[in-house]
Write a structure and sequence with these properties.
The structure holds 3 protein chains of 3 kinds. By secondary structure, chain A is mainly α. Chain A has a single domain (3-335), classed as ABC transporter involved in vitamin B12 uptake, BtuC (Orthogonal Bundle). Chain A is built from 15 helices and no strands. By secondary structure, chain B is of the alpha/beta class. Helices cover 37% and strands 16% of the residues of chain B. Chain B contains 18 helices and 18 strands. In chain B, the strands form 7 sheets. Chain B has a 4-stranded parallel β-sheet. A 4-stranded parallel β-sheet of chain B has the order 15-13-17-18. In chain B, strands 1-4 form a two-stranded antiparallel ribbon. In chain B, α11 (272-285) packs antiparallel against α12, α12 runs parallel beside α16 (420-431) and α16 runs antiparallel to α17. Chain C has helices at residues 57-65, 87-93, 109-114, 129-141, 157-170, 187-203, 214-220, 238-241, 244-251; strands at 16-28, 31-42, 46-50, 72-77, 80-81, 94-97, 175-179, 206-210, 223-228, 231-236, 255-260, 263-269. In chain C, α4 (129-141) crosses α5 and α5 (157-170) runs parallel beside α6. Chain C is built from 9 helices and 12 strands. In chain C, a hairpin with a 2-residue loop joins β4 (72-77) and β5 (80-81). The model of chain C is unreliable at 1-11 (pLDDT under 50). By secondary structure, chain C is α/β, with parallel strands linked by helices. In chain C, the strands form 3 sheets. In chain C, strands 6-7-8-3-9-10 form a 6-stranded mixed β-sheet, with helices on both faces. Classes of the chains: A mainly alpha, B alpha/beta, C alpha/beta. Chains in contact: A-B, A-C.
Chain lengths: 340, 466, 282
Amino acid sequence: MSVERRQAVLYILLLVLPLPLAVYTIGLGRYEIAPGDVVRALADWVTVGHNASDLPDLAYDIVIRVRLPRIAAAMLIGGNLAVTGAAFQGIFRNPLVDSNILGVTSGAGFGAALMLLLKGSTLEVQMSAFFFGMLAVLAAYAASRLYHTAPLLMLTLVGIVIGSFFSSLTSLLKYVADPLDALPAITYWLMGGLTSVTQRDLPMLGLISITGMISLWLVRWRLNVLSMGDSEALALGLNPTRLKVIIILFSTLMTAAAVSVGGVIGWVGLVVPHAARTLVGPSHLRLIPATIAMGMVFLLLIDTLSRTMLPGEVPLGVFTGIVGAPLLLIILRVNKTGWK
Amino acid sequence: MLKRFSLFLAVIALLVGGVAPAVAQSGNSLTVLAPTSVQPVVEAWAAAFGEAHTDVSLNVEFVESSEEILSRAANASVILTDDPAAAPELDFECGFISDVYVPLPGVGAWVIASNSCGGSVDPIDAAALDFAAFIVSADGQQVAIDQGALPESVEIVDQAGMTVTIPQPVRRIASPYSMATFYVYGVGAGDRLVVAGYLGVNSDATKDVMRAIDPNFDALSTAVSTLSQKEANIEELAALEPDLLLASARTDWLDAADELGLAIIRFDGESPEKLKEAMSLLGAVLGPNAAYRADEFNAYYDETLANILAQTEGIENPVRVYFSGTDALRAASADMYQTMMIEAAGGVSVSSDLAGYWNDVNLEQIAVWNPDVIFFPPYGGASADAFAAPEWASIKAVQDGKVYGVPKLVAPWDTPVPDSILGIIWMAETLYPDQVDLDCPVEATNFYSRFYGYTVTESDLQSMCP
Amino acid sequence: MYDEAGANLPSIVGPSLLRAEAINYRYTPERQILHDVSLSVPAQSVMFLLGHNGCGKTTLLEILSGVRDVQQGEVFFRDEALHRLPPAVRAQRVGLVPQIHAPAFAYTVRDVVLMGRTPHMGFLGTPGRADYEIVDEAIERTGLGPFRNRAYTELSGGERQLALIARGLAQQTRVLLLDEPTAHLDPRNQHTVLEMIADLASQDVSFVISSHNPNSALLYGDYVAVMKAGHITTLGTPQAVLTEDVLNDAYDMAMDVIYEANVVRAILPRRARYAPRATYRA
C-alpha cells in the first residue's frame, strides 16, 4: 500500500510541477529584472493592464510581452508534442513513433518553407504550416483508404511515404531558395525555436492545445484498450476505427498548431512518454496527464536554457535532440517494464 | 630605351569643321598619333580594327616624344602620352576623353580622346570609341599578346590559396558567384560574361537598373538553367565554353567543374582587404585595362574609407547599432562584413560578441543591448514592420524612431561588393547626420558612373541616400 | 449425425443463451467460409468447437461474439439480435477472449483485467471504485491474486490466459468465447485453465472454446461441435458424438477412440504399424 501511496504522491507532484517551474522561469532571462519587479509586472498585468505602477516600460514589456508568451508557448507546445506522442504510441501500438509518423511535421515544414519563400508574414507562415500539416495527414488517410487490407498498417506506410514526399518538396524549396534571402529563414524555421513567439501566437495555439489535451485526457482509458489491438477493442465494445480517426484528428491538429508556432522540434514526443511511463507506469489513465505535465516541464527547461545561456540562441530542435537522445538511451537502460 | 618613356599619352585627334576641313570631308577617317615605342602593337591593332571596320579608315602616325604629340594635338584628335596628367591640357572644344586605359608592360597608360564636334551623334566620336573598345577587348588583348607585348598566361593565387594558371586573354567568364559578377562589372569586363548570377537583383526596379548597366542582363542571368552555390547544371555550363569560372570557395560543385578542366578563381572572406584583393585578382587575369580599373577602385576605396574614418574616428559615445538579418531576431556576428562597416562608420555593433554567421537572438537579449539604432538589410524577410510590433516598443532605437533599412541600387550595400563603400557612407551619415560631412548623392553618382557606367537618376538617389 | 434442420438437438438440454441461425459467411464471393451454420449454447455449459485448421472455427467465434458482422443469418443472445445492439451493449452480453499475445505496453494484470469493464463505462468513462472491486474479485476467482500488480508481459502463458479469462469475467457477460485458450500451454497449465473454465461454467458463465485437442473436449466439455469446411457436421455431448467415424471425417485421418467401461477415455491418432518398445536401450 505504501508503494501505491508513494506513487500517488509522485503523480500529484508531477502534475503540479509545471506551475512553480513556470513562475520560477519568469524570473530568468538575459535581461536582469529583480524578482520584485517581475511580481509587480505580473500584478500590473493581472489587475489594471498596462503599467499601473512606476515600473519601467522595458521591464514590463519583457516580462509580459516576451517572457510570458514564450513560457506559455513552450509549455503548450511541450505538452502538445508529448501527449500526441503518447497517444500515437498507444494507437499504433509502437513505442517508437510520435505524432510525425503520419507526416504532419513534414507537411507543416513544407507549408512554412513555401510561405517563407513567398515572403509571407508570420501569420501567413503559420497558417500555411498548419494547412499543409493537416493536408499531409488527410492525404495519407485518403490514400490509405484505397487499400482494403490492414488499414492502420497501410495508414502508417502511406503516412511515411507522404512525409518523405513533403520532405523532398521542402528540400526542393530550399534548393531553389536564394541563399541570402529565404534559405536561412527556412533552415532556421526547420530547426525549430520560440525566439519570435509573441502574445499574438497564443490564442490559436492555446485553443487547439487545450481542446486537444482535454480530448486526449477524456479518451485516456480508451487508449489502454486501443493499445491491445483492434479485435480486442472491438470485443470490448469499442469502435476502434472511429476512435482512432478522432484521436489522429485531434493529435494532428495539435501537432500542426505546435509546429506552426515553434517549427520542427523533435524528440519531445518520443522521449517524454517513455520517461513518463518509467515514473507512472504504462496505463494511460495516469500516463496522459503525466505526459502533458512532463512535456511542459521538458520543453520549458530546454527553452529556458536556450534563451538564457548565451547571447545567441541554440535552435530548440537541435537542443531537444542533444538532450533527448542520451535521455532516451538512459531510459531504455533503466526501464525494464515500460514496454515488452 | 623605350622603357625610359614611362608614360606616353596617345591622342587620336580628329580635325573637324574649321580645324581640319580636309579630314572632315573624308568622313570616318581617324588619325592616330602614337609614340614610336609602341609602333608594332599599334600597327597590329590598326590592321585588326580595320579588318573588322571597313567603313573606317585609320591613319596612324608615329612621333618620337610626348612634346611633339602635344604640339600636334590641334591637328589630331587623340594624344598618346605617358603622362595621364597631360590629358587636361588637351583643351578640346568638344568630343571626349575616354576612360579606357591600356597600360602595357613597360609602356604606360594610354588615354584615348576624340576632338570631334560632329553633333550629338558624331560618327567620328563613335568610331574613336569603337577603336578604344577594341584595343581593351579580348581581341585587342590577343593582338598585343601576338606582338609579345602581353603575356600568354597569368598565374595567380586565389582566395582559397590555390595556384591557378589562366591562359590569356579570358574571353568567356562564367560567374555563378553572384557577388563576383559585380567585381567583373567594376573592372569593366562585363562584356566578357557568358553567364552570371546577380546578387540582390530580384525586383523589377533592380532589373531595370541592371539592364541599363548591361543590355545583356536578361540573357546572362538565364543562360544556365540551374546555377547557384549549391548546384549547377554542369553540362549547360560546359556548353557555354567558359575560359574562367568565378566561384565562392564554399560552392558545392567545384570538384565537378575541376573535372572539366575549367580555370576557377575561388573567392572567400568578408573584409575590405578581401574585397580589394578580389578586385586585384580579376584585374590580373582580365587584361591591362581591368588591372588599371582594379587599382583605380582600390585606391578609390582606400581614399574614401580614409576620408570616412578621418571623420568618424574619435567620435565620443559611439552610437550602438543592432544589425538585424533576414529576420528581426537574427543578429550579425563579429566576423561579418556588416560589423566592420558599422565600425568604419563610427558605430559599435551590439552583437559583436557573437561568432559565426547570423545568430538567432531573443528580444530579451536585444533589450539587454538596448541599441540606439537598428539597421536591417535589403533582402530576406527583413522589413521595418517587424520592429513596429508592440514587443519592440520599449527598445530605445524603436522609441527614437531610429530603424533604418540599408539601401541598394542593385547589389545590397551591406555585402562585400564594390557598392559597399557607399553603404559605409550611408551608415556614417545615418548615424551622425550632424557630425560627418560626406555627400552620399555625389559619391553614389560618381561611383556608379565610374565603375558601372550607369547614370544615377533622381529617384535612384531618393531611394539610396539618407 | 447432426440433424440438418438444426432445430431439435436431442443431446442439448436447457434454455439456449446464445443462438446462431443459418449463418453463411464469405470473405470473397468465391470463398465461402461458413455454410448455413446453426448453433445453440445453453446456460452454464462448456462447448468445444473442434475441426482442422481453416475449417471456420475462429470466424464462427468472431461472428458469435458480434465482433465480425453477419452477412446472412442472425445471432441471438436470448431474444436480442446481437449484431443490432450498440457495440458497448453487445460487449455486455458476449465476451471474446483472444489468443494470448504480448501487448506493446507492460500493463499490470489489474490494468489488463480492468479493460473488461470498458463496455460498462460511459462513452468517455473511466473506471470507478465499483469497477476495481469487480476486477479484484475476478482476479481472485482465477487465482491470480499474487500477480495482481505484476506486469502482464512478465507472466507465463498459462497465467496470461487466466488473466484474459479474468478480464472476460470482469466483463460480466453470460457467455465467453475462447479462441484456442490452451494452445502453447504445457499440460499442467492446460489443465489449470480448463479446470478453471469448467468450475466457472458450473457457477454462472457459459463457454464456447475452439480447440485442436479432442481429448480436452472429452474431458472438460459439456458439448462438442465438430466442424469441417464451414459446416457443423456433428453436435452433441462428447461421449455421444466423439466416435471414430466423426473424428476420421473431421480430421481426414484415422483415429482410435479408447473406451474404458463403455465410457470414452481417450482419442488417439492411429498409426499403421504401432509396436511400442518395452524397454529403453541406448
